[in-house]
Amino acid sequence: MDQRVGILLDHKMYKGIQRNKTGYEHIGLYNKAAKELHLEPFYMSLLQMGKKSALGMTYDGKRYRLARKQFPKVTHNRAITLKSSLIAKLKNLAAASLVFNRLNRFSKHRIHNIVASSPSLRAYLPRTVKYSKENLIQAMHVHSSVFIKPTSGSVGDGIIKLSRGDDSSSWSLYIKKGKPLRKGRKSAQAFIHRFIKGKSYIIQEAIPLATYNGSPYDLRVSVQRGDKGEWQVTGIVGKVAAKGRQVTNVAKGGKVRKCEELFQASGFSVTDTKHHIGRVALQLAHHLGRKLPHLADIGFDIGLDKSGNIKLIEMNGRDQRITFKKAKLTKTFYRTYFTPMQYAKYLLVNKQNRATASRRKR
Question: Of 321, 313, 159, whose CA–CA distance to 237 is shortest?
Fold first, then answer.
């Protein structure tokens, strides 16, 4: 069996491999997983690909070496591809290699609509609509608090939280850490419209999140396909908003905590809550996986309200697993690398078996 598995990285990350400067991506864990599974990792960048081969990095257990090789039969995509030239190169790679997580950047509104198409999953969604002046006016009538988010943003950039004041005529806008802006209804609407400047945004009902030491928290749930091709929950970790902030993103000062600690502080049953979150996360992954081809490695941001009810905040198509490392969940952190490599081996074996069966029929 061909043991080579492609791992597609952003070019900057790829260039940093030999200097051990790959940001949040811990390449050594791919190497460890590959050794355990008797696979050969081949690190690639779209900028160094030809029509049938790529100049990439191999690892021999001691050092990385540059080598030009034909496209591997299976590739795990960890690169964000937005430019048309890179999209064309990815399409060319996918014609020769089975690329899982080929698409990993999705509109928040698209994911919301896919989940909403399932009657059994609809209850886990906060109310979400595309941004428009009319929808903002309507949302401010219906909800006491909403988030205005970019449809394809990440790490909490560009998010506004809008909350009604005690007198019902004033509104607070939370944009950055510190004191919120206080404005009247129409002034708040005008400010938000100027802030957005015609970009694609959504309006999402704000969940009254459970809190830890007075700060709201949510959960990152890693859901991946493994050695039998089936979805599994690899890990759950909590993210607590920094003091004075309304978003939990670690990039915005959020702190990671083990989920057990958060559930205990909120008075939730640790065992029951973890089981419930895992069950819902798997249902979401199965449904989304049927609608989005080659989906295999995702992270859900899931919120719990103060009664423990579950709401899906968003799906991350390229899960930044570093939250598990920061929470000192070392074994779980490794499993988030090991599981996709198990899935890659599963795909390799299946592909080899199909090729063998096809030859026998001739």
Answer: 321
